[in-house]
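User: Fold this; tokens only.

Assistant: Input:
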Amino acid sequence: MSHRQLQLFAVLAVLLVTTGALACPNCSTAQVVRASVLGEDFWSHLVMVVVPFLLIGALSALLYRIGLSSTAEGEQ
């Protein structure tokens, strides 16, 4: 199986799976799952996951910016 055929197969498989998953968005099972995923602790868990990445990203951007300014001063 060539690389192109494998890519085509992967795209078709993803499309079929998502079509099946979206077939019944308002059935009782989907509503229960949606309620359990987006339940009372969803936002607190989301914040606990996202905040470390934001802090690391901000610190990295700051250190990168400091490094750029020091190399620009050295070149002049």
